[in-house]
C-alpha cells in the first residue's frame, strides 16, 4: 500500500460541550463538522481541524455521555500528537497551557524534536510537536479566526503512539502490507523504554507511528479520554477498493467498503487488536456546507436526512 500519511484520529468524550470548549477555545482548532455517529445517530461526532479540515489535520470525537474513564493500558492508541509550526510556537503554547491550567510536562525532546506532552480535561493524552525541522508531509493552515494565535496554531496530526505487548506481528502488517518502513528508535523521556518509529508516504511528523512495546501493562479498557481508531490517508475511492482487494487476498478481516459521505473507508484490526481505518482524501467537509460556515449547524449525510427532526430532538445543543 502507498499510504499518504495520517488521515484522522477518533477518540471518545463524555461531554460534547466541554470538548468543544477545550479544543476550540484553548487549543484553537476549528470545528469543521458537527455531525453524528453514523452507526449510532443519537450521539455527536465532532471533527476539529485546520481552516477547512484538510486530510491529516482532523481530530474527531464521539460523544458517549455515560462513558466511564479510560483505563490506560496495552493494545491501545496511547497518545495523539498535534503539530505546531516551529519551536517558537511551542514556547507560546507552553505559556498558554499554563495560563489555562492545562496539565502539561513542559518542553521536552522526543525523537530529535521538541514536544509538549499534555492532557485534556478527560485525561486524553496529547503531545504538541514542533515542525521546526520537518521535511515530510506538509501541515495544514490554522484557522485565521482561531482563539489561539494563528501564526502558532495547530497545523495537523503528528506521530500517533501505539502501545502493544508484541511487535513482530504488528510490524509485519505495517511493513509488508501497509507499506510502512522502520525509521529509528528512541528512549521515552519518562519511561526510559525504547520506542520504535515507523513512517509511510513522504514521512515526517504527519506520517509516523511510534510503537511502545510493553509487556508489563494490563489491556486498556476504552472510555472517555481514550482513542477509538486511527485512519490513514488513501488517494481516492479507486485506490481504496484496490486496498480492500489486497486485504481480502491475505485473509485480513475487514469492514468492507464504507461510504462515510465526507470520505470512503475500510476498517480492520491489526494483530494486537488496534482498529485501523483507510480513508480517502475526498470529497471533504465542504461537500455539504460553505467553507466559511463549516461546523456551525448540524450536518447529516443524505441517508440520515429524513431522520433529522428526531436526531435533533435527541441531541443536547452545543454553544460555541
TrEMBL record:
- What's the short name of a Pfam family annotated to this entry? Glyoxalase
CDD domains documented for this protein: PcpA_C_like
User: Which PROSITE patterns does this one have?
Assistant: VOC (PS51819)
Domain (VOC) spans 5-131, 156-281
What top-level branch of life does the organism fall under?
Bacteria
What InterPro entries is this protein classified in? Extradiol_RC_dioxygenase, Glyas_Bleomycin-R_OHBP_Dase, Glyas_Fos-R_dOase_dom, VOC_core
Q: Which Gene3D superfamilies match?
A: 2,3-Dihydroxybiphenyl 1,2-Dioxygenase, domain 1
Which Gene Ontology molecular-function terms are recorded?
dioxygenase activity
Alphabetical keyword list: Dioxygenase, Oxidoreductase
Please state what the protein is called.
Ring-cleaving dioxygenase
Amino acid at each position: 500500500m502507498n499510504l499518504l500519511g495520517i488521515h484522522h484520529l477518533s477518540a471518545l468524550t463524555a461531554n460534547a460541550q466541554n470538548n468543544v470548549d477545550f479544543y476550540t477555545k484553548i487549543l484553537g482548532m476549528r470545528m469543521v463538522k458537527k455531525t453524528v455517529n453514523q452507526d449510532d445517530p443519537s450521539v455527536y461526532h465532532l471533527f476539529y481541524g485546520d481552516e477547512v479540515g484538510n486530510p491529516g489535520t482532523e481530530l474527531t470525537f464521539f460523544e458517549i455521555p455515560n462513558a466511564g474513564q479510560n483505563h490506560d493500558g496495552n493494545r491501545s492508541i496511547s497518545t495523539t500528537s498535534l503539530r505546531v509550526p516551529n519551536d517558537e510556537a511551542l514556547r507560546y503554547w507552553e505559556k498558554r497551557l499554563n495560563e489555562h491550567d492545562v496539565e502539561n510536562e513542559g518542553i521536552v525532546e522526543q525523537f530529535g524534536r521538541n514536544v509538549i506532552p499534555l492532557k485534556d480535561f478527560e485525561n486524553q493524552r496529547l503531545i504538541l510537536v514542533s515542525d521546526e525541522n520537518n521535511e515530510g508531509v506538509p501541515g495544514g493552515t490554522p484557522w485565521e479566526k482561531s482563539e489561539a494565535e494563528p501564526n502558532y496554531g495547530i497545523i495537523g496530526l503528528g506521530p500517533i503512539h501505539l502501545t502493544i505487548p508484541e511487535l513482530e506481528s504488528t510490524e509485519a502488517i505495517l511493513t509488508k502490507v501497509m507499506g510502512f518502513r522502520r525509521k529509528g528508535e528512541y528512549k521515552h523521556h519518562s519511561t526510559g523504554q525504547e520506542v520504535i518509529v515507523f513512517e509511510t508516504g513522504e514521512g515526517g511528523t504527519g506520517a509516523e507511528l511510534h510503537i511502545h512495546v510493553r509487556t508489563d501493562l494490563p489491556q486498556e479498557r476504552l472510555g472517555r479520554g481514550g482513542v477509538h481508531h486511527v485512519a490513514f490517508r488513501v488517494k481516492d475511492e479507486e485506490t481504496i477498493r484496490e486496498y480492500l482487494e489486497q486485504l481480502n487476498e491475505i485473509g485480513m478481516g475487514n469492514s468492507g467498503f464504507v461510504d462515510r459521505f465526507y470520505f470512503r473507508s475500510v476498517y480492520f484490526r491489526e494483530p494486537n487488536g488496534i482498529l485501523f481505518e483507510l480513508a480517502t482524501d475526498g470529497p471533504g467537509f465542504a461537500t455539504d456546507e460553505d467553507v466559511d460556515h463549516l461546523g456551525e449547524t448540524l450536518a447529516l449525510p443524505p441517508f440520515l436526512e429524513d431522520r433529522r427532526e428526531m436526531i435533533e430532538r435527541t441531541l443536547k445543543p452545543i454553544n460555541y
